Amino acid sequence: MQHKVIDTKEVVIRFTGDSGDGMQLTGSLFADASALYGNEVSTFPDFPAEIRAPQGTVSGVSGFQVNIGSGEIRTPGDYCDVLVAMNPAALKANAKWAKPTASIILDSDTFDEKGIKKAGFKTDDPITELKLEDRHIIFAPITTLTKESLKDSGLDPKSIIRSKNIFTLGICYYMFNRPMGTTEEYLDKKFRKKPELADANKKALKDGFNYAGNVHAIPNTYKVQPAKLEKGVYRNINGNQATAWGLLAASEKSGIPLFCGSYPITPATSILEELALRKDLNVKTLQCEDEIAGICTSIGAAYAGNLAVTTTSGPGLSLKSEALGLAVMTELPIVVVNVQRGGPSTGIPTKTEQTDLNQALYGRNGECPIAIIAAHSPSHCFDAAFYSAKYALEHMMPVMLLTEGFLGNGSEPWKIPSMKDFPEIKAPVITESEETPFWPFKRDSEKLARRWALPGTPGLEHRVGGLEKNNDGTVSSDPLVHERMVGERAEKVARLANYIPDLEVIGDDSGEVLVVGWGGTYGHLYTAVKELHNEGKSVSLAHFDYILPLPKNTADIFSKFKKIIVCELNSGQFANYLRTQHQQFQYHQKNKVQGQPFIVKEIVDAVNAIL
Amino acid sequence: MEMKYTPQDFKSNQEVKWCPGCGDHAILASVQRAMPEICESLNYTKERFVFVSGIGCSSRFPYYMDTYGFHGIHGRASAIATGVKVANPTLTVWQVTGDGDALAIGGNHFIHAIRRNIDINILLFNNQIYGLTKGQYSPTSKLGMITKTSPYGTVEHPFNPGALVLGSRGTFFARSIDVELKLTQDIMVQSAKHDGTAVSEILVNCVIFNDKTHAQVSDKEFRAERTIILKHGEPMIYGKDKDKGLILDGNKIKSVVIGENGITEKDLLVHDAEEENPGIHSMLIDMMYPELPVALGVIRAVKDKTYDDNVRDQVIDAREHAQIHNMDELLHSGAIWEVK
Questions:
Q1: How many helices (H) and strands (E) does chain A have?
Q2: Is residue A543 within 8 Å of residue A376, measured between CB atoms?
Q3: pLDDT one-digit tens code per residue, A600-611
């Protein structure tokens, strides 16, 4: 058979297997290799909450989808061109994501009677049962081949079998004409202390690659040319790492040490892990006894003069609610990062959602508004975290940064910014005051920010706390003082609108339909709007990074469109919020609460339905 | 000796709003009197003090000190104080809390602060009742105690705060009574000098909702007979006439009369607060009237590395061996590539 190289602009590949099969690693290695090759890349890890769910069952299937392209890539792709399934269960769970033209690579060794039964197939022919006969099915005895490849490696049988994901990666590298150098370097680094493992994995990778080249089962290989990226130095980054680094950047710019008090919680944990690595940049991390201590240690650290952050996900934010009110009352600069996941309660912890918006907006006792900023892509988490910290410090108030599991775990190539391009951060730290004793809640007239008098400063001794106080710091339950202070705190948040950027419209400034979104749906909405626009339809996108306060030009933009459709991964929380803020408009909705990102087609269809 | 400060320097301009006759007034006076001595002996200045509290009667304390102060939320003072200390280890951090605040809603933070041995001073005002909410039983209320939420008597066993400190591998525990002003003052100084979490339980009277709860040991009439003030390196002697002592009888502490049954001062236990093994400390903490006198003074003060020291050492070490010195270097670390 003649080997054919197909040039294509965009390919989606989905790696799936048991949660112990190493699919997350395989997927990220493929993504990294593609990014280094120069493609645009977007990834979507989709895995179960269990670390090792029962082997071979559908509930234990872990997936990692990568979209690589030579042009603009804004989403991990809806459906895949290549599906890798390491066992029958993985095939069963993921067949629905395979395009009609897809190639499907299967480990034939796992498709025995036992494996097929465990996956819950009714017949002994999964391909027919799933109606995949038209797809290009590649049955490769991956387990046997890996065993054969590593029989002289000196590794124990268990370690050998564990390398089958790397063998599979080798097959994919052949299929997509990927260079293997970066992966080899990675393996050398990862197994620095066990060179025999590094060698074995490198051999498995190469043998997988050669196997694919030798057998005739793979008729076509794909070539995805490097994307025409803007000049510069690039790296791959996921959302949680970008969040951690954005906070570090704010610490450097402000000259204020970073403190992070947190409790491990999926999918936010890796922010704490990333910050814990950075003692070299003077970061202090405290893994607390619980979520409440996470925010309370941060409040204490903020009082003592650190840039203090706490990182969490939905249930953790619920636990932090009372203390968040304390941060509002004491007017201290903390950043609360909420990497949203599927709720309520424990919900679907490893899946993505935007269902904590109401909690962020309203989840505290008393009248207690806080600034809310949302990140819209993995790399944008860097900027969003930086500005969350900047506004917290400069306006002396807590800021909540909303990201999502989809962003936190997802990755993309990122043109590395230079720190000199980021603005200064000037916190209102004082070392003396005109008045004696010091008035802790005296405000500047523009931002309404109070001054930050740090313990250790002579002459500025003062007390703050959860009780209502007058501007001079004395405890007061005077009705009018309370009403005024409630108003001042709310006005301080509202005035942030004078400092944040205007809302931008992507596409024409006016027209038939304005698609409105916020947070991690950006890539899907952008792709959908572009598709519709290319079809000649009058559709634009307005995507909100700033939720509270809303950008000042919001109503201006809304008024230029005949229809507005708010698309979000919840039942309509942002739409309802907009109804309270800008009541003069009518809002259509496209909602999804499945723990999964949008599919571009869903948005296209929803917009077409109102056009 | 001429001191830099007087107690007056630590009094804020706020009106003290505890009930007349409340034991908290006495503790406030003891703490304010201890401050000049602490500053003198440790070369501290006033602005380095931070008083942190939770919620409850005792937690109003920071408002009455002319220092930096943070009145937190219920139970969370240990966590807030931990954050203050980690952020700026040069501060001297004092947490004021009560039996409800520290041992019920804040129990988790309390034990974990102690486990970490973070260098904060915890003053635990134990009045065995919820005062600010007007008289419900607390985690230290005696079994069977009748309160508004236990009209038939409590059916819960109380905590002994000192036992929790030992259980958390605490390095410092002291006990005083509100009426023992000088002892409280001395303990405050010892607490300040201790590196690590220093817990001082102060038995305090709630004149409104739990009056005389400690009376059987705190009343002047029998205090000397029913309490023992422990001093490091000294034999365990108590009693109005200094005629009683404590010995180890088998594996139990026993009270004896000096001179009776051939017992001399040499037979008595000598208090060693610095002994790492908590065995004797545990027995001393558990002593209850009427079987034994209630132990007061510094019961345990052992040396160990503090959390804040360890954090500081790690940061210094990491920065000395750093490959990455700033953000631009971090951003360019690991796998990067250039598009030309």
A1: 21, 25
A2: yes
A3: 999 999 999 999
Report if residue B235 sits inside a domain.
no
Which A residues in the span 285-304 are in contact with B, Cβ-Cβ below 8 Å?
A: 286, 288-290, 292-293, 296-304
- What is the pTM for the complete model shown? 0.95
pLDDT at A2: 56
Q: How many domains does chain A have?
A: 3
Residue B295 covered by a domain: no
Nearest CB to B331 within list A304, A416, A464: A416
A246 and chain B in contact, CB less than 8 A = no
Q: Residue B64 is part of which domain span?
A: 7-213
Q: Is the pLDDT assigned to residue A378 strictly greater than 90?
A: yes
**Is A213 part of a structural domain of the chain?**
yes
- Domain span including residue A343: 237-421
Q: In this structure, are A278 and A402 located in the same domain?
A: yes
Higher-confidence residue of A56 and A299: namely: A299
**A216 and A308 both lie in a single domain:** no
Task: Classify residue A426: in a domain, yes or no.
Answer: no
Indicate the DSSP class of residue B55: S
Q: For residue A304, list chain B residues with Cβ-Cβ distance below 8 A.
A: 50, 83-85, 87-88, 91
In a domain, A329, yes or no: yes
d(CA B93, CA B73): 17
- B258 within domain boundaries: no
Q: What is the pLDDT of residue B59?
A: 96
What tokens were used for B217?
A: 């040991």
d(CA A568, CA A376): 12
The total number of structural domains that make up chain B: 1
Which of A421, A442, A459 terminates a domain? The answer is A421
> Is the pLDDT reported for residue A158 higher than 70?
yes
- What is residue A1's predicted lDDT score, i.e. its pLDDT? 46
Buried b (16+ CB within 10 A) or exposed e, A293-303: bbbbbbbbbbb
Among A380, A402, A421, identify where a domain stops: A421
Calculate mean pLDDT across residues B300-327: 94
Residues of chain B contacting residue A190, judged by C-beta atoms under 8 Å apart? none
* A437 preceded by a cis bond (ω within 30 of 0): yes
How many interface pairs between A and B have CB atoms less than 8 angstroms apart?
Answer: 208
Q: Looking at the complex, does the CB of residue A139 fall below 8 Å from at least one CB of chain B?
A: no
Q: Report the CATH number at residue B61.
A: 3.40.50.970
Interface check B45 vs A, CB under 8 A: yes
Reported as a pLDDT band with limits 50, 70 and 90, residue A3 is low
> CA dist A590 to A347, A375, A563, B82, B172, Å?
22, 20, 13, 45, 60
Question: Of A249, A457, A474, which is closest to B14 when you measure between CB atoms?
Answer: A474
Indicate the SS3 state at residue A387. helix
Q: How much is the mean pLDDT over chain B?
A: 96
Structure tokens at B312: 């500081």
pLDDT tens string A475-521: 999 999 999 999 999 999 999 999 999 999 999 999 999 999 999 99
Cβ contacts of B80 on chain A, cutoff 8 Å: 296-297, 299-300, 303
Please state whether beta strands A61-69 and A40-46 pair in parallel, antiparallel, or not at all (unpaired): antiparallel
